[in-house]
């Protein structure tokens, strides 16, 4: 690095300007805690990244109560339940009746747009378009982020606390020596084929369906744009599918005696989304703390990814705030254990939702019939439905 590089000193250096990094930055700034965020993507690229669309009530509350803006409440759609569909029949899981809670359909890229706007409005220091980002000196009192600014000039951020909120490919996580972390994961023999289409909604709520042809999810975005997914081979080539083939595949997975018909329209985005279940432990190395996908990923079936990231951020914010106000590191020291308790519950729920709804190519008749028995248990037991409803709408934040 040249000696002319710019050095900034701040309390908290955050790698990653996705929802987790920006939410943390927003909360810290509101508490008067100086911070800088660095991301190697540009703002428009993140805003165009389509991810899941369901927010737990606790996530909605965090966004609205912390003064990001009110768009989640004015533009988001409250959903009081989902349809669990199998054997061609729908079974409504009525969250409001079962556990007195709801979720909001509000896409992750909108959450990002709201947070990026709020950071700009409030004078936050967010450096998009960085390159060659590396982190150093985690175990010292002054961890550092070194990178090249979007204008090509070398830069260094010196901080007290470093946060890795840089997603599933996290450079922060990978900078932890192998002997200092465990990487626990499972792979699934399927991925999701996701589309965005210009069409009216096919249903008022999300439909999660298990069919003899595999899983499908009918989700929405607005009155005119719909989001749908179906289980596919992880090696599938998204561009090889024609619109007619995609619609036929989705339709046969929701077919049933009730004659449910999907509303078709032009597909303007189609992609294969691989996933796995993964946890890094601990979510800390020295003075570096991991949050969100940098520390763990879940399959999308439980819609937990973004919600879990925001739950981490809330715990981490409180730990940093306490350190800032009192000098005590106690909450920083317990951050990883506290966050991981929720992470493993969400892992378990996401794994369960994935397994009851997807079918494995090599499943024996026994396994297929057993899976239907499990779905029938959920559909016929209020206790089982409450378990699903409570997990899906989100456990109370720590
Ligand atoms: C979505 O709308 O993109 C979505 C909703 C629920 C999920 C996953 C994705 O479980």
From TrEMBL:
Residue intervals passing through the bilayer: none
Gene3D superfamilies: D-Amino Acid Oxidase, subunit A, domain 2 (3.30.9.10), FAD/NAD(P)-binding domain (3.50.50.60)
Upper lineage: Bacteria, Bacillati, Actinomycetota, Actinomycetes, Mycobacteriales
Taxonomy, superkingdom: Bacteria
PANTHER family hit by this protein: P-HYDROXYBENZOATE HYDROXYLASE, TRK SYSTEM POTASSIUM UPTAKE PROTEIN
The protein's name: 4-hydroxybenzoate 3-monooxygenase
Species of provenance: Rhodococcus rhodnii
MF GO annotations: 4-hydroxybenzoate 3-monooxygenase activity; FAD binding
Keyword terms, alphabetized: FAD, Flavoprotein, Monooxygenase, Oxidoreductase
Enzyme Commission code: 1.14.13.2
Domain FAD-binding: 10-349
């Amino acid at each position: 690095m040249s000696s002319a590089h710019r050095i900034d000193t701040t309390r908290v250096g955050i790698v990653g300007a996705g929802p987790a990094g920006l939410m943390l930055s927003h909360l810290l700034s509101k508490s008067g805690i100086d911070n800088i965020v660095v991301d190697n993507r540009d703002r428009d690229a993140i805003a165009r990244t389509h991810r899941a669309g369901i927010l737990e009530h606790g996530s909605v509350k965090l966004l609205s109560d912390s003064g990001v803006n009110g768009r989640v409440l004015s533009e988001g759609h409250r959903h009081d339940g989902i349809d669990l569909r199998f054997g061609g029949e729908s079974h409504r899981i009525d969250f409001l009746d079962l556990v007195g809670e709801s979720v909001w359909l509000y896409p992750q890229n909108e959450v990002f747009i709201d947070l990026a706007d709020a950071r700009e409005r409030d004078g936050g220091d967010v450096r998009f378009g960085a390159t060659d980002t590396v982190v150093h000196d985690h175990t010292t009192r002054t961890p550092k982020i070194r990178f090249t600014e979007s204008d090509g000039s070398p830069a260094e951020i010196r901080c007290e606390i470093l946060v890795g909120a840089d997603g599933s490919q996290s450079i922060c996580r990978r900078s932890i020596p192998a002997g200092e972390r465990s990487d626990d994961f499972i792979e699934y023999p399927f991925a999701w084929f996701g589309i965005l289409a210009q069409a009216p909604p096919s249903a008022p709520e999300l439909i999660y369906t298990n069919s003899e042809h595999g899983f499908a999810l009918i989700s929405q975005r607005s009155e005119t744009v719909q989001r749908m997914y179906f289980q596919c081979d992880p090696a599938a080539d998204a561009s090889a599918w024609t619109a007619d083939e995609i619609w036929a595949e989705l339709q046969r997975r929701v077919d049933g005696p009730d004659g449910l018909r999907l509303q078709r329209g032009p597909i303007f985005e189609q992609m294969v989304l691989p996933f796995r279940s993964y946890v890094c432990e601990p979510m800390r190395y020295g003075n570096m703390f991991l949050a969100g996908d940098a520390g763990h990923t879940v399959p999308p079936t439980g819609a937990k990814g973004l919600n879990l990231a925001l739950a981490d951020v809330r715990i981490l914010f409180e730990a940093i705030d306490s350190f800032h106000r009192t000098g005590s590191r106690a909450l920083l020291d317990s951050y990883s254990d506290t966050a991981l308790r929720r992470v493993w519950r969400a892992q378990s729920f996401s794994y369960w939702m994935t397994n009851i709804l997807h079918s494995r190519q090599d499943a024996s008749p026994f396994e297929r019939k057993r899976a239907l028995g499990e779905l029938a248990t959920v559909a016929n037991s209020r206790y089982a439905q409450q378990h699903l409803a409570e997990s899906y709408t989100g456990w109370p934040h720590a």
